[in-house]
Amino acid sequence: MIEITAKPYPLRLDPASSALIVIDMQRDFLEPGGFGAMLGNDVSLLRSAIVPCQRLLEVARKAGMLVIHTREGHRPDLSDAPPAKLARGKGPTRIGDLGPMGRILIRGEPGHDFIPELYPLPGEVVLDKPGKGSFCQTDLALILANRGIRSLLVAGVTTEVCVHTTVREANDRGFECLVVSDAVASYFPEFHRVALDMISAQGGIFGWVADSTAVCAALTRIAA
10-24: per-residue pLDDT in tens? Predict the structure, then answer.
């Protein structure tokens, strides 16, 4: 067992029954010319999470933890994309349209892929999801059950959307969730701050929050 300094209080967990899930660190969201930038967002705000995610991946891998990478995206025929999602925003370019990195949020297109800095290693779980939450229409629950996972370390983007949705889903399924505060990011700094506060409020209503320094220090003791 290890203890991680966190809000609202320290979290004790067993790395053998814990997983690191890195959410949607995709080119379409984090690179100039991707879908996020096309919507007018400053992608540098998301890129601040890259180095903390790299540190987390390094120590989690050394500790032998299960590592899961998720990608949001759809089938080329868009049969798994709800019409309401495709219509939302009323912008000139939408999911499925051609962008600078191929068709936007379509599986197999360059923009849908992971950024090079955080590419999965062979054998690590890659989970393609059609929605915001990582449990929706995926086999994540089965993967976690088969490995006896009880605790999740959560990183990725964006804090208030796919990260928050995943944590809320996981919380309702009985998982302990720790969100790594500097390894998640948002296009909107205020949303990021409030979303983290919501996780640890009321005695940890959705889980715990800690920075990557605290998490890596605890995991390094196991990896050593």
Answer: 999 999 999 999 999
Q: Specify the pTM.
A: 0.96
Q: Which residue has the tokens 């599986």?
A: 107
d(CA 127, CA 111): 16
Give the residue from 126, 29, 131, 121 showing the smallest Cα distance to 84: 131
Average pLDDT over residues 186-192: 98
**Among 76, 67, 125, 68, which residue's Cα sits nearest to residue 97?**
76
3-state SS class at 147: coil
Count of CB atoms situated within 10 Å of the CB of 40: 8
Active-site annotation, residues: 24, 129, 162
**CB crowding 23-35: b at 16 or more within 10 Å, else e:** bbbbbbbbbeebb
- Residue 223's pLDDT is what? 56
Comparing 50-64, 76-90, 95-109, 117-131, which segment has the lowest mean pLDDT?
76-90
